[in-house]
Design a protein that fits this description.
The structure is a homotetramer of 296-residue chains. Chain A is of the alpha/beta class and 296 residues long. In chain A, 45% of the residues lie in helices and 12% in strands.
Amino acid sequence: MSKLCTGVFAPITTTFDDDGALNLNALKENVKKYAASPIHGYLALGSNGENKALTWEEKIETARVIIENKAPEQIVMAGSIFESTVETIAFAKEMEKLGADYITLLSPCYFKSMMKDEVLIRYFTDVASAVDTPCMLYNAPQFCGGITLSLKVIQECAKHPNIVGIKDSSTGNVEKIALSVPADFQVLSGSANTFLSCLLTGGIGGVISLANSVPEVVCRLYDYFVRGELGKAAALNREVIKANMGVSGKYGVAGVKYAMDRSGYFGGAPRLPLFPIPEEGKQAVDACLDSVDFSL
Amino acid sequence: MSKLCTGVFAPITTTFDDDGALNLNALKENVKKYAASPIHGYLALGSNGENKALTWEEKIETARVIIENKAPEQIVMAGSIFESTVETIAFAKEMEKLGADYITLLSPCYFKSMMKDEVLIRYFTDVASAVDTPCMLYNAPQFCGGITLSLKVIQECAKHPNIVGIKDSSTGNVEKIALSVPADFQVLSGSANTFLSCLLTGGIGGVISLANSVPEVVCRLYDYFVRGELGKAAALNREVIKANMGVSGKYGVAGVKYAMDRSGYFGGAPRLPLFPIPEEGKQAVDACLDSVDFSL
Amino acid sequence: MSKLCTGVFAPITTTFDDDGALNLNALKENVKKYAASPIHGYLALGSNGENKALTWEEKIETARVIIENKAPEQIVMAGSIFESTVETIAFAKEMEKLGADYITLLSPCYFKSMMKDEVLIRYFTDVASAVDTPCMLYNAPQFCGGITLSLKVIQECAKHPNIVGIKDSSTGNVEKIALSVPADFQVLSGSANTFLSCLLTGGIGGVISLANSVPEVVCRLYDYFVRGELGKAAALNREVIKANMGVSGKYGVAGVKYAMDRSGYFGGAPRLPLFPIPEEGKQAVDACLDSVDFSL
Amino acid sequence: MSKLCTGVFAPITTTFDDDGALNLNALKENVKKYAASPIHGYLALGSNGENKALTWEEKIETARVIIENKAPEQIVMAGSIFESTVETIAFAKEMEKLGADYITLLSPCYFKSMMKDEVLIRYFTDVASAVDTPCMLYNAPQFCGGITLSLKVIQECAKHPNIVGIKDSSTGNVEKIALSVPADFQVLSGSANTFLSCLLTGGIGGVISLANSVPEVVCRLYDYFVRGELGKAAALNREVIKANMGVSGKYGVAGVKYAMDRSGYFGGAPRLPLFPIPEEGKQAVDACLDSVDFSL
């Protein structure tokens, strides 16, 4: 594995026209801007990417646009998120062909009561064994029926040579995970709320939805940490969490996209059944983002 | 709408070879046997059908085999279960082309925290408005992140001319639903555990996983009810619930398929990540089914 | 054990003045009326009895009034619901001294994550071994942090000579329990929603909150069942569930008490923090109870 | 209010003999040692204090021993945790008489479905209005049926002149709370896992179960933070979280007590139904605590 998955990643949104049609030109423009920004990479086809709202072909085209337009040194993690092992592997191979640096894997959950530790370990290792691209676990109980990866699952998967890290978007776990895995297992936070805490306990980066709208702010926070300026990091972190609460916390993908619109990116609306942000939501996001101090 | 969705339905399993390949010949043989059985119809591409483990094309081929080989009077409900409105509609139209009698719709759940009542109502009615085939809601919190359809959602959807019923696979709700909807809104139980109770409170049928292995038993139970022989119905119902607890309750799809193998159907294994039933599971299912009295 | 715990039980409410003071005279008057009604007994100090809102002394006085004023043949189950084994035993002995026929035991739950099966089995059997009065389990996850008694816990407890039954107020379990325990283990439903279904699968009675306001209706339903008039039972059952949804389902103890006020009993308000039923709640309960047909 | 609730607090355990009898002498000896330690105060009758396992009288005697034997400058928060408003107030007044500095209030939860925001706000403000001692909210969904205090409840309660802070023992909330309340509303972490993160986002202290066994370590961590030595704080914090995971995280109160035994305090066993720590648990705690580096 050549590139370490460290720094700030944008869980890049997928761009749609108002009628719900995929707009790859808008995506391309967004990526070009991110390519000139300080972010270290992207999570393509993640939750903010509305992975589950895309057809197989749309997913591939979306990943292709991101990979072809990013800056050369930027890293791309690509989600392969399906309910069956066979389909997860097949899609992971598509991402491998496109040149993704990492494959991100979420727990299947349709048959939640059957997803015992040994089933999940088998699933993740089956996929990781079938591809050459290194795999990252994705712990996000809010998106998979409440399934939280146990430390046992994570530690067992960490023994697999091709499972090299985890992105944790749950609450209250990232510190425990970072303190329970081998030193070379890469732990990333999946939320601004836990980003600094993750770094302070051994994590090496974060996939932060605010990086979609204010990439330079999240990167500055990361740089403060790297340089050991922890007082500055803590001060900016407070503003970043407040912003995150008001944007992603309240309005989800629709809020993230509206914040992008505010920052000169193409945000637009999510695909149905997700509703676009309502007028009062825009005002609330405006009020929130106008009140935080990103200059710290 | 010509045919009423009444009686006993098999949530038909999808047949795979041991290497996970779709085996449509085996499915065809199963359907031919069911066509000669007393069941009133099928739920194709439901949970026991491992809907989420199939590719788009596999789903279509599976539904086609069922529709082409069923008995003429048998009804086919087909699941169109996706996370985006656009994909749900597109697949529902495929099912409509094939001649499905009903489309079954499950709540999206990836962004669970966003699935407020008004979002779900919009989702179900958007889909129902886009097709001519009548639609059935599918209430199954165990398969969609814990989302239980509220009575408000059900009652609002019941006002849509093309949403004509509900299959309820939750616990503790089917009686309340049956007693809260208009008389012509068709309520079906989705579990042997609640089948008789559903019928006694106004429901008109059931989608019962045991009908995959012992269709004549479940149909006899239904017939007792229809003829008002409630004492006989209650006696047989006890055996049916005991069987269901030991088969589907403990081992899920793998148990349902093993019970099919026992009855001369092609059961086989589910697709990974679901594990096949272990040896001790087979023995437990054997012991359970040998102990119940289906002759009542 | 002399008396079988069969038939219809009122989970009798505890009576308070408007300022929250315990009103034992009102309770006495209520019990005298119930003594002249067809109900087979009482659950004293249960959930509708606001057990947790009473001091130790108030609990004893409440149970005393019920036991001293009931009809001689009526049975009294008394809740001994505490978090520590020692306190549960001490209170159970107080109930024994007063002459309670059964002690009802709910799972402790403060340290929910510690309440493994073996801990619960130890708890229930420790209490049952410490008293002579027969004990009933009380399965009510909605009142104890979501802890549902597993079939293993129930079956192990059923082996104890002094644990003789269970009152199940959960959803979707009473039929499974009734079909999984020895024939002499007494299974009672704890909700009108599952009462008839419980009886049809092997249960012998119910603790039904509507019996607080319309005891004769619930007893008639039970009598239909006992006489094998299942069609009549099913018809009345539909009305009973509809009434229960509108009264207890929507407004809890406050609704149960308002329905008592309507029927000539002393209902009054629950103790804070529970709010009294609001005006629109009274109107909704009125509308519900005026619409059901209890004459069936 | 004279004393600010800042620094490190021990959620002091309650001491029992092996037969479960309250051992106040052992408690007195523990408190005398804590009085000579650097901790800033105590939470008496909290979760680690097994509040719910004590009778009314035992609670009072326990609080009395703590208050009478602490160092003069140490602060005592005392839990008044009951299901009814009237009992919570009555006990809070007992604590006030004894001289507690703060009263700690947990959400009632028996009737969880009724505990809407307005009910909880009424509950907390009713209690706070009835006493002169300042009150702290206690947010601990794991101990009250999953009820998490909403930001709305916290913000409304913060307007009450006698509700002055919150102890948050949930996961993923303390940072959001600290960033959402007025500057003079005192936010304390209730877990080592979130202690440093809480301080970095505006909190002023923590109630940390490890302070029962290694008070000087937790206080050193706090001092690093206060002096702005954030690198040192982060390094020690990693060891503290690892220790907490192995002690409290795995074995709860029994683990906390065993760690106390190891450190020369009287730990002993919790009261039934809680089991004492098993032999392999002792070994696991030993291994954990032997592996962490508290010298940082």
